[in-house]
Design a protein that fits this description.
The complex is a heterodimer of chains A (249) and B (174). In chain A, 68% of the residues lie in helices and 0% in strands. Chain A is an all-alpha fold and 249 residues long. Chain A has one domain: Ferritin, core subunit, four-helix bundle (Ferritin, Up-down Bundle). In chain B, strand 4, helix 3 and strand 5 form a beta-alpha-beta unit. Chain B has 2 domains: 75 residues, 2-Layer Sandwich (GMP Synthetase, Chain A, domain 3); 64 residues, no CATH class. Chain B starts with 9 loop residues before the first helix and ends with a strand. Helix content of chain B is 23%, strand content 26%. In chain B, 40% of the residues are buried. Chain B is elongated, with a radius of gyration of 19 Å. Chain B contains 5 helices and 9 strands. By secondary structure, chain B is α/β, with parallel strands linked by helices. A 4-stranded mixed β-sheet of chain B has the order 6-9-8-7. In chain B, strands 3-4-5 form a 3-stranded mixed β-sheet. The chains are: A mainly alpha (249), B alpha/beta (174).
């Protein structure tokens, strides 16, 4: 697959899968505002995935967005393992939300300079949306870690340790990083990771949390190797579509 | 046989679109919301309208797109093309004065003006503390607390007024 299509699929698949995970908090959030927050973020992420699948369809000859989202096999998805993991308890979901959205926000900021005009325009749009996601995640991580109690702080530290190797896996290289950089499509996963680590580190200092050292990134998602959690998620996500694939909504 | 108006001006289209409301905030028109980017009258029977959603995941955009098309068709235009693009992204600065008044009438606080934070992306995130300066739409007090940047629709946030003890919703600055 060409490097640009691979990049757009990676970003879109991450958004689609994390949208589904976020939507699983609908009706179950620990308080009403958090229920609404995770549901709203889910809706935004679906919008991001849809916009990217649409670019893939209209400019790169891929199939239509619904077909891409609902009929591909598990091995055709290139999302990272981080977004596949079950929601667990709220501490894990919140920490994942912050770490993922910080990366997404910075990724879109970088993509504002993309040589692909439609991607650059979309990036400017989405940056304005994701800043609210980061603001939300950052606020709660700091609040629970530094202004909560011993239990909330211990839970946030533990969630950070659980998330970290998976979070590093977000920056697994695509099929051809050099081509993306050379053609000005995207400045690359390594550059993104550097910016992300700097931002996350400053937040964790404020929160009083310690980032694990020497952890290796969990890789494979970008090559189509997934955790055992993705297939059940796809089964659930596509159940209505599969009931009547040609249905008009 | 098709019947069309003998002449149709761009201003006729804009006037007609003033009657198309946002289904989620029925006091405001799509024009005053600032989501109509461009109207192009190629001929009395060919009109193109370019619009953009407030948020990429906005579920109301398809309804508004159909309503816009119908409103132009009602003027006797036979070929109406409505396209949705992100080329000119929506921001709260696109709200008209009339639109801002309509939001207040709906009980929604007006979006604060985002400070110029320069090019450092993370400073944009930190600057969202500006949400806490939102003025209460009921009593006008700035003594308010932001409860959540997410509300009942993607474009709204939740606040509480410490002066009149009233919960309220605000229109998020983008």
């Amino acid at each position: 697959m060409n490097a640009t299509k691979d990049l757009l699929y990676r970003i879109a698949d991450d958004c689609l899968i994390i949208a589904h995970r976020n939507s699983e908090w609908t009706g179950l959030g620990p308080l009403l505002e958090e229920d609404i927050a995770f549901s709203s973020i889910a809706q935004d992420k679906l919008g991001h995935a849809l916009s990217l699948y649409r670019i893939l369809h209209e400019e790169f000859g891929e199939r239509d967005p619904d077909t891409i989202a609902f009929t591909r096999n598990e091995k055709d998805f290139t999302c990272c393992h981080f977004v596949e993991l079950p929601n667990g308890e709220y501490d894990f979901s919140l920490m994942r939300h912050f770490l993922f959205d910080a990366a997404e926000f910075l990724r879109w900021t970088m993509l504002k300079n993309s040589s692909i005009a439609s991607v650059a325009a979309l990036a400017a749009k989405i940056q304005g949306e994701t800043k609210y996601h980061v603001y939300h995640g950052r606020t709660w991580v700091i609040r629970l870690a530094s202004a909560g109690n011993e239990e909330s702080k211990a839970r946030m530290q533990s969630a950070l340790e659980t998330c970290w190797p998976f979070a590093l896996g977000m920056f697994e290289h695509g099929v051809d990083e050099q081509a993306l950089i050379r053609e000005g499509v995207f400045a690359g996963e390594d550059e993104l990771k550097t910016q992300w680590e700097e931002f996350v580190r400053s937040t964790m200092v404020e929160a009083g949390l310690i980032i694990p050292e020497h952890d290796a990134a969990v890789l494979g998602g970008r090559k189509g190797y997934h955790t055992e959690h993705l297939q059940p998620l796809l089964d659930e996500m596509t159940v209505v579509f599969r009931t009547d694939p040609g249905a008009e909504w | 046989m098709e019947t069309t108006m003998t002449t149709i001006e761009e201003s006729d289209i804009w006037r007609a679109l003033k009657d198309v409301k946002d289904p989620e905030i029925p006091t405001i028109s799509v024009v005053d919301m600032g989501i109509i980017i461009k109207v192009d009258v190629q001929s009395p029977s060919d009109v193109t309208v370019i619009m953009t959603p407030t948020f990429t995941g906005c579920p109301a955009i398809d309804v508004m797109r159909a309503d816009v098309e119908q409103a132009v068709r009602n003027l006797g235009v036979s070929n109406v093309h409505v396209s949705v693009t992100y080329d000119t992204p929506w921001s709260t600065s696109r709200l008209t004065d009339e639109g801002r008044a309509a939001l207040l009438r709906h009980g929604l606080a007006l979006p604060a003006t985002l400070p110029d934070t320069g090019t450092e992306p993370t400073s944009i995130v930190l600057s969202l503390d500006v949400l806490s300066e939102t003025a209460c739409p009921y009593c006008g007090s700035h003594n308010t607390t932001v409860k959540s940047p997410f509300g009942p629709t993607l474009c709204r946030s939740l606040h509480y007024c410490n002066a009149c003890l009233q919960a309220f919703e605000g229109f998020k600055p983008v």
